[in-house]
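Please check what follows.
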Amino acid sequence: GNLINAGERLKPSLKRHPDYGFEEIWRELDEPGCFLVDLAPIEDRGFLIIAEPQYAEAVVNSTEQFKYSIPKSNNYHVLKPVLGAESIITKEGAAWKAMRKRFNPSFRPRYIYSFTCSIVSRVEIFVERLRSLAKSGVTFKMADYAQYLTTDIITQLIIEQDFNAQSTPEGHGEKSPTGVLTASRRLSAMVYDVGQGVGFHMIDPIRPLKSLFYETIFNHKLTAIVKARISSIDTTSESKSIMQLAVSGLTPNKALIRSCVDQIKSFLFAGQDTTATLIQWICHEMSKASHSPHHAKILSRLRQEHDAVFGPHPFSALQILSSPATAESESILTSKLPYTTVFIKETLRLHPPSATVRTVPWEATSLSLPLPSHPISIAGLQIYPSLYLIQRNSNVWGPDAHLFNPDRWLDDAYLAELPVGAYRPFERGPRNCIGQELAMLEGIVVVASIARGFVFEKVGLTGRAVVDGGEKEREVWSEHAITSVPVDGMVMRVSMSRNANSRP
């Protein structure tokens, strides 16, 4: 098997996402469309890594045998304390389909865009916090600020509950030792790293007790909120939270409440971590404008678009997007900010925050992958479409695949040459990300609100020489923490731009 070879590249001490190890193997193999990693005797199933979109499409789309695509890996069981046993993320078959059907209306674009004012109000707090950081000049982790922003947004949209994650001091309110936000954060931190090898960190008799403690707190508090929300549903009101819309017309009972709690946990996890990671990478790409003429040109074009749409003041987007005229805001966000949209798409292409692993049952002997030479059976394999490899593959995206270049998305001839499924940060097929419209909306509002008013500076892991003529330090990379996150929490400093001294 390949256990020793792969183990050297995937060991936890490297503090990096497994994708980097798979990339090294992929390049040594001359960049095949997919390759098999045999981890016996640790894993009895081979691990098929996919680096080209046509093979990913074959895995995540419906098949004759699997109507809703190949089942997800049973490795997701480690997420049970975080997601719950009834999570839409881990459910399979008809049970998953029924749940997805129930929530689909809540995530349709028109319904999501009705929350724009609510999102903008939370971004306004985020902007004020950045102003304070700019005034003090302190170094900070963007991960902390982005995560509390996305927490405030997702809790308000899902259950109309404001936990005030951005404004509550540590140790108080829901950030107290028995608070919901503390329980959520601690549960996520206690999940074992899947795909990072076996180590002494997995032998901890106290860890399961801690996990149970925080899971009990999490479930108890969310159950109380769900009961209150379900009992207060106003069937005549057009304004409903995502959860209220999903359960409207259903008879409240223990099973429904338990399912709702698990979906809230799932949406909190998925909607908080991944979008917060997107915001961190957005700020990192903006920060490069101070030393890269290429990035400076991109940022200038982004700011010009915002000037044209919102007027010259650097924070005018907040005022305009907070207008109660929903149709006007939706028009701006969906059709008048094309460069902002492709800036975010390019960020997601280079820095996809999550991915999926599928497990093909041993008995699915008819399933095969259409390799150029001949179809091969994939029965019994674990399959990982590596979005990092697929979306940086120069055989797919061209020689500048590793370059941050939003303009590629405005080149119709270039886009026409891309194979189906080349871009897949939210995955594709029946089980694509239900919250992708919300993630894009949050990203657009954040970029429009910060791009002109702030100048970001990466501190450490810059990819540049610390002193002129010196050796370059490594550029910030991702590590695996359930999802893919910047290894240092994206340590930054921020200052006000030259035009940001006055308020609108």
Residues 465 and 472 are 4 Å apart (CA to CA). The first helix runs from residue 3 to 10. The two ends are 63 Å apart (CA to CA). The chain has a mean pLDDT of 91.
